[in-house]
Amino acid sequence: MAYVLVVEDEILLRSWLAERLRDEGHDVVEAASGDEAKAVLSSPIALSIDVVVTDLELPGSCDGVALTRHINARFPALPVIVASGRPPPTWDGLTIAGFYQKPYDPDAISRRVAALCGDGTDTAQRDQGRG
């Protein structure tokens, strides 16, 4: 199973998704902002993270697009799944592993995480953001 970083400022949504992922056997670390996620990614735990699931609209100095840019630059092989209640932005060359419009089905994200980690339960292909 995977080690997943869930980045979501809405605590109920973050807890709901994290619990669903844990129910599927994944290890989950939670962050309430992009700044908090960057701190996690600067710690030794970063080497264990297999997938990041992030909201686009986050409090602080680092929103979901900036976080994705940071991950693409520092950890180019680390898949980023993005979720938002708004239409997807122009990705300007950023690479994402999927976009989910809120409200989303947590089972769909769980299947995508599983597929990215090699168990093949999802047939979605890796999306490349283009600006």
Quaternary state of this entry equals single chain
Number of strands: 5
Q: What's the CATH H-level superfamily name?
A: Response regulator
Topology as a string of helices (H) and strands (E) = EHEHEHEEH
Estimated structural class:
alpha/beta
Overall 3D form: globular
Helix fraction bin? 25-40%
CATH architecture: 3-Layer(aba) Sandwich
Task: Explain the overall architecture.
This protein has one domain (3-116): Response regulator (Rossmann fold, 3-Layer(aba) Sandwich). Helices cover 33% and strands 18% of the residues. The chain has helices at residues 11-23, 34-41, 64-74, 106-116, and strands spanning 3-7, 27-31, 51-55, 80-84, 98-101. The chain has a 5-stranded parallel beta sheet with strand order 2-1-3-4-5, sandwiched between helices. Helix 2 packs parallel to helix 3 (64-74). The radius of gyration is 13 Å and the shape is globular. Mean pLDDT is 88; it is low at 120-131.
How do the helices and strands line up, and which of them pair or pack?
Elements (H helix, E strand, L loop, with lengths): L2 E5 L3 H13 L3 E5 L2 H8 L9 E5 L8 H11 L5 E5 L13 E4 L4 H11 L15
Parallel strand pairs: 1-2, 1-3, 3-4, 4-5
Please outline what is shown here.
The chain is an alpha/beta fold and 131 residues long. It has helices spanning 11-23, 34-41, 64-74, 106-116, and strands at 3-7, 27-31, 51-55, 80-84, 98-101. A five-stranded parallel beta sheet has the order 2-1-3-4-5, with helices on both faces.
